[in-house]
Write a structure and sequence with these properties.
Length: 295
């Protein structure tokens, strides 16, 4: 797809990114921090200096999700509000961009594992495979919608997170959370459904430990719940100041030994998972009360 259909790139050092950020993600090498804005700006910052390296303005669409690829160096994927996914290749002087249409809805979830990409938009999930010859992602399949129960059959289906992981019995799993329809785990080798669990409360986001043994969900109404991956049995829960009930992120850090969660009251809290107690509360001085972490 031509560059003009996505927007215009700005050379390094010529622009200032001032928009409210929707998402942020550091690259695996620790060189760049990418941030996406509701005004359609993708900004790449040098982590070491904090200086702006590149800025890109999409033509009409907000940047809602980010993921660095594993198949091409210095390349980041951006999920856009118009249902497209844009690929940006970072060079010292400019950004090279192309993309593809993915969903009928805004692309709010991206997950990368090797040559595979999972994308989620509202009720849709698609899996893509990297085509090294043509340097693009080919659509592999569309996943079926999650099973419903009598408690959630009238609720809208909204994907809130996607994660690639593994277990002792399965080499590759896709772990999916839905706002109103719990957790769905699929075997990514044959795409059979292993289990679907309707958890209590609405799930705003989720995180999986690096070893795949636990997962945490952000519960819109009360805080963060941690579960064992294989049994879905609860391990512990961490409450916090909810403020206005609103989706906030959650993230395992320090190799899964600690959990970090956002809030709507200007705080980011960090808990020691094994000890089940709060380690730190980081208070924002900015007038904005929404506290979201950057992965």
């Amino acid at each position: 797809m031509p560059c003009d259909e996505f927007g215009t790139a700005v050379s390094a050092g010529l622009a200032i990114c001032t928009t409210m950020k929707e998402c942020g993600l550091a690259d695996p090498d620790g060189t760049y921090l990418a941030t996406g804005g509701m005004d359609g700006k993708l900004c790449l910052w040098y982590l070491e200096t904090g200086e702006l390296a590149h800025q890109y303005k999409t033509a009409t669409s907000s940047v809602l999700s980010l993921a660095w690829t594993e198949v091409a160096p210095d390349t980041i994927l951006c999920g856009l509000q118009n249902g497209s996914v844009a690929l940006f290749r970072v060079t010292p002087t400019k950004l090279l961009v192309h993309g593809f249409w993915a969903h009928r809805y805004p692309v709010e979830c991206l997950a990368v594992s090797g040559t595979r990409l999972a994308t989620g938009g509202h009720r849709e999930i698609a899996v893509w495979k990297w085509n090294a010859t043509d340097q693009k992602y080919d659509r592999e399949l569309d996943l079926e919608e999650p099973p419903k129960t009598s408690q959630n059959e009238s609720e809208p289906i909204i994907v809130t997170s996607l994660h690639w992981t593994s277990s002792d019995k399965h080499a590759c799993l896709l772990f999916v959370t839905y706002m109103n329809h719990g957790v769905h785990v699929l075997d990514a080798t044959n795409w059979t459904s292993l289990r679907a669990v309707a958890l209590n409360g609405r799930i705003a986001s989720a995180s999986v430990t690096p070893d795949g043994k636990m997962y945490a969900v952000s519960n819109v109404s009360r805080g963060f719940d941690v579960y064992y991956m294989t049994s879905d049995a609860p391990f512990c829960s961490f409450s916090h100041k909810v403020g206005v009930p609103s989706p906030v992120p959650v993230l395992f850090i320090h190799g899964g030994r600690a959990l970090m969660g956002g809030s709507t009251v200007g705080e980011v809290d960090i808990w020691a998972v094994d000890l089940k107690h709060k380690m730190h509360s980081l208070h924002l001085r900015h007038p904005c009360k929404d506290a979201f972490h950057v992965r």
